[in-house]
Amino acid sequence: MPDGERALVIGYAPATRRDALAALLALDARLGGILRGTREPMVGQMRLTWWHDALTRLDGAVPPAEPVLMTLATTILPLGITGAALATMIDGWEVLLDDLDDAALTAHACDRGGRLFALAGRVLDTESAQLATAGQGWALVDLAANLSDPALAARARAIAGERLDVALAPRWPMALRALGALAHGARMRLAKPDRAEGHPLRIARLLRHRLTGR
Questions:
Q1: Secondary structure class of 53 (helix, strand, coil)
Q2: Confidence of residue 73 (pLDDT cuts 50, 70, 90)
Q3: I need a surface site. Which of 16, 177, 194, 196 has the fewest CB within 10 A?
Q4: Contacts of 7 (CB under 8 A, 6+ apart)
Q5: 40: buried, middle or exposed (CB in 10 Å: 19+, 13-18, 0-12)?
């Protein structure tokens, strides 16, 4: 998601929670960047292990001079979300270091997207059964766009479509519409792959969701 569209979505969150939501999404982006920037699985594993340890240590130590960790410490931890809870997201990235199959797709969807959206729900002080399903679909859409195997990418998109259809069927509560907008953005990416992110019609659809929850 481009910075402008991401900023729009974060703006849907309550003002007092926007910095925390932005920090959570920045963590996800940083972890994804490790996989995209690493060709050797062993190197990727080492970097993810460093992040797992660093996140866990937030619960008992001053964060190192790393911007994402410092922001998490000041915005997420005061909300009662532990560094150990944040570290569980790494499971969803580690699975991509091995050969991918349907089981790996499901694990990535649950451990990355499902956990991210569930943690974001805690940030927004509202829990919903929709969140994990929406996060799973969102994560698989993003993964599919970065897979070189056309068959596997198609499978990821198919599963994503099923999860997003279920998650987006009910009306979303106002407090969670930032996350609903992320899910809508993912579904539009499936339905209209030729419509660039930031396209006016995409923005209009996200604004509609903010107003109606649909």
A1: helix
A2: very high
A3: 194
A4: none
A5: exposed
Q: Which long-range contacts (CB under 8 A, 24 or more apart) does 79-83 make?
A: 79/20, 79/122, 79/123, 80/122, 81/119, 81/122, 81/123, 82/58, 83/55, 83/56, 83/57, 83/58, 83/59
Q: How far apart are CA 140 and CA 182, in angstroms?
A: 13
* Cα distance between residue 104 and residue 156, in whole Å: 10
Give the residue-averaged pLDDT of 50-56.
98
Tally of helices (H runs) and strands (E runs) in the chain: 12, 0
What is the percent of the chain where pLDDT is above 90? 86
pLDDT value at position 3?
63
Is residue 2's pLDDT more than 70? Answer: no
Residues in the chain: 214
CB atoms within 10 A of CB 4: 10
Name the average pLDDT for the chain. Answer: 94
- d(C-alpha 196, C-alpha 214), whole Å: 21
Residues 6+ apart with CB under 8 A from 156: 105, 140, 141, 143, 144, 147
Contact 59, 83 (CB under 8 A): yes
Over range 31-41, report the average pLDDT. Answer: 91
